[in-house]
Design brief:
Elements lengths: L5 E5 L4 H12 L6 E6 L7 E4 L2 E4 L1 E2 L10 E4 L3 H13 L3 E4 L15 H4 L9 E3 L3 H17 L1 E10 L6 H15 L31 H14 L5 E8 L6 E9 L5 H10 L3 E3 L11 H4 L5 E8 L6 E8 L3 H16 L1
Parallel strand pairs: 1-2, 1-6, 2-5, 6-7, 7-8, 9-10, 12-13
Antiparallel strand pairs: 3-4, 9-11, 11-14, 13-14
C-alpha cells in the first residue's frame, strides 16, 4: 500500500461522506490525493478539505484508476455495482452499506475487536451496521471476559442514521408542531417529532426488521461467535445524532458489576460514564461528535442468570460509520 494513498470518498455529499472527509482531516490520515465522488445530481458541489476546495466528480466505472483506498457510503445498490469495479482496478474498498457484510469472502470489521480479519481481504472490507458497532464496543470486551450467550436489546436510534433529509424532517416537524401547523411527512411513515417509531429498516417474514436481525448476524461474524443470539427491537427516536442501546446480556460465567466495570474501563474506544448518584450516564446529546462510545447504567440483570444490564451510546455517523471506515483504512497502512 502506498504510504500516501490516493483516497476516494464515494457518496461524498451525504451525511456519512461529509463525516468521512472531516475524519480523514482530523485524524491526519496521510492522504496523498483526495477524490470526491457522487451521483450526477451532486456533481460540481464543493467541499473543503485541509483548507482546499474540492469539487465533487461523477461516479463512473472509470473513477478508480490510480485510487488506492475508496471509502463507500452511497447505499447498497451503488456499492453492489461499483465496489467490484473498484476492487478489480486494484483499489481497496471500505464499504459502509449492508451489501457485502454477510459475504463469507469479505471481512466485516470493527478494528478494536477483529482488526486481524482485515488480512484476509480481497479488496473489499465491510463496515458493520451502526447499531451493531456501537453495541459491540461494550459487549465484546464483556464477551472476552465472561462469554456472552445471548442478549435482549432495544435501540434508540437518531434520525441521522437515515440521512441528511431525515435531520431536516425532524427540524421541520418540530417547528410545525410548535407553530400549530399541520405536520408534513416525507422520510418516515409517521411523524417523528415528539414520537418514537418501533420501525427501522424493512420488516421481514419473522416479524423482526432487517436492522434488528443485523445485530445477531453481524455480531456472530465480528465476534467469531456462531452461537451468539440476539433479540432486538430497533426504535427511531427524535434525536438528531448518536444512537443509544439498552442491553440485557446473559453470560456463560458469573459476572459482577465490579468485574464488568474493570473490564469496560480497559476497553479501547469506550468511556465508562456510570455514576447514578451524580446523574451521570451516557446521553446521545453528549456522545454526539465524539469518537469513543460511552457505557453506563451497569447493573446485575434481575431476570437472567449470569446477567448484566447496560446502556451504551455512540455517534452513529462516527463509530457507527465514518470513523470506523477511516480506522480500517489506518489498519490497511500498518
Amino acid at each position: 500500500m502506498n504510504p500516501k494513498p490516493h483516497v476516494a470518498v464515494v457518496g461524498a455529499t451525504g451525511a456519512v461522506g461529509i463525516e468521512m472527509i472531516k475524519t480523514l482531516e482530523k485524524r491526519n490520515f496521510p492522504v496523498g490525493k483526495l477524490t470526491l465522488l457522487a451521483s450526477a445530481r451532486s456533481v460540481g458541489k464543493t467541499l473543503t478539505y485541509r483548507g482546499q476546495t474540492l469539487t465533487v466528480e461523477e461516479l463512473t466505472k472509470d473513477s478508480f484508476a490510480g485510487v488506492d483506498i475508496a471509502l463507500f457510503s452511497a447505499g447498497g445498490s451503488i456499492s453492489k455495482e461499483y465496489a467490484p469495479i473498484a476492487a478489480k482496478a486494484g483499489c481497496v474498498v471500505v464499504d459502509n452499506s449492508s451489501a457485502f457484510r454477510m459475504d463469507d469472502s469479505v471481512p466485516l470489521v470493527v478494528p478494536e475487536i477483529n482488526a486481524a480479519d482485515i488480512k484476509g481481504h480481497k479488496n473489499i472490507i465491510a463496515n458493520p451496521n451502526c447499531t451493531t458497532a456501537i453495541t459491540l464496543m461494550a459487549l465484546y470486551p464483556l464477551h472476552k471476559a465472561f462469554g456472552v450467550k445471548r442478549i435482549f436489546a432495544s435501540s434508540y436510534q437518531a434520525v441521522s442514521g437515515t440521512g441528511a433529509k431525515a435531520i431536516e424532517e425532524l427540524k421541520r416537524q418540530v417547528e410545525e408542531v410548535v407553530a400549530g401547523q399541520p405536520v408534513t411527512k416525507e422520510v418516515y411513515p409517521h411523524q417523528i417529532a415528539f414520537n418514537v417509531l418501533p420501525h427501522v429498516d424493512v420488516f421481514l417474514p419473522s416479524g423482526y426488521t432487517k436492522e434488528e436481525e443485523k445485530m445477531e448476524n453481524e455480531g456472530r461474524k465480528i465476534m467469531h461467535h456462531p452461537g451468539f443470539r440476539a433479540s432486538v427491537t430497533c426504535v427511531r427516536v427524535p434525536v438528531y445524532r448518536a444512537h443509544s442501546v439498552a442491553v440485557s446480556a446473559e453470560f456463560e460465567k458469573p459476572v459482577t458489576v465490579e468485574a464488568a466495570r474493570a473490564v469496560l474501563c480497559k476497553a479501547p474506544g469506550l468511556d465508562v460514564v456510570d455514576d447514578p448518584a451524580k446523574k451521570e450516564y451516557p446521553l446521545p446529546l453528549y456522545a454526539a461528535e465524539k469518537y469513543n462510545c460511552q457505557v453506563g447504567r451497569l447493573r446485575k440483570d434481575s431476570a437472567l442468570d449470569n446477567g448484566l444490564c447496560f446502556w451504551v451510546a455512540g455517534d452513529q455517523l462516527l463509530k457507527g460509520a465514518a470513523l470506523n471506515a477511516v480506522q480500517i483504512a489506518e489498519e490497511l497502512l500498518k
